[in-house]
């Protein structure tokens, strides 16, 4: 299933991006994202970041490192140009809080978030909560999303938190090697349940790194689900991109070079 816009020459109402996985060790990915903000995001009315903008986020007290400050300031420019910037936390950066949001000019949204864009009822989420076949991950997710766990974790020194996160990332990579490809994707029933509970006609999410568009029939009605790509411009071939939603309700997928796909 493809997505196209009949008004590709007009400015989009909203842009959607996720899974950029920014980190200082990936300079080309960083520069590609900064170009996206400077050349494309400022032309939209709304920008939605649907999680995992950073490879990891240890807490808002890490906000003032030079690398993080550069990203925050670039997002703030988009906000100051009149673009409404919204955020849904991912599995890597769900600890982003009010200090980061205020500095970047972002509004943190609950997940799933339902809104009206271009006369469509749209539901937005990161996507990891719908990977219900991955039982081990769902147990881990419940643990780290618990308020008590987060309070205890954020009370630790920043350096200690980063060490723990590095260990978690290594464990996650090792675990993924032994998991079936299918269980790391979203569960169709979980997706249909979101459509049914929100009555949305369009869903956009990331997390799975499997960009595609899917049709679901829920309650006898056709619904569309768009999956965003992950970014890595330091690899060959480079990958990344975003989706734009236009005033006529049509959508267009863009590659990391800004060209329509």
TrEMBL record:
Free-text remark on how the cofactor is bound: Binds 2 Mn(2+) ions per subunit in a binuclear metal center.
Top-level taxonomy: Bacteria, Pseudomonadati, Pseudomonadota, Betaproteobacteria, Burkholderiales
Reaction it catalyzes: UDP-2-N,3-O-bis[(3R)-3-hydroxytetradecanoyl]-alpha-D-glucosamine + H2O = 2-N,3-O-bis[(3R)-3-hydroxytetradecanoyl]-alpha-D-glucosaminyl 1-phosphate + UMP + 2 H(+)
One Pfam assignment: Metallophos
Keyword line: Cell inner membrane, Cell membrane, Hydrolase, Lipid A biosynthesis, Lipid biosynthesis, Lipid metabolism, Manganese, Membrane, Metal-binding
EC number: 3.6.1.54
Cofactor field: Mn(2+)
UniProt keyword Ligase present: no
GO biological process, one term: lipid A biosynthetic process
Role played: Hydrolyzes the pyrophosphate bond of UDP-2,3-diacylglucosamine to yield 2,3-diacylglucosamine 1-phosphate (lipid X) and UMP by catalyzing the attack of water at the alpha-P atom. Involved in the biosynthesis of lipid A, a phosphorylated glycolipid that anchors the lipopolysaccharide to the outer membrane of the cell.
UniProt-annotated binding residues for substrate: 91-92, 134, 172, 176, 179, 207
Keyword Transcription regulation recorded: no
Residues in Calcineurin-like phosphoesterase domain copies: 15-211
Residues noted as binding Mn(2+) 2 in the record, renumbered to the chain: 52, 91, 126, 207
Membrane topology: Peripheral membrane protein
Chain sites annotated for binding Mn(2+) 1: 19, 21, 52, 209
HAMAP family: LpxH
Main location: membrane
GO molecular function: manganese ion binding; UDP-2,3-diacylglucosamine hydrolase activity
Family statement: Belongs to the LpxH family.
Cellular component per GO, a single term: extrinsic component of plasma membrane
Name of this protein: UDP-2,3-diacylglucosamine hydrolase
Compartment list: Cell inner membrane
Pathway this chain belongs to: Glycolipid biosynthesis; lipid IV(A) biosynthesis; lipid IV(A) from (3R)-3-hydroxytetradecanoyl-[acyl-carrier-protein] and UDP-N-acetyl-alpha-D-glucosamine: step 4/6
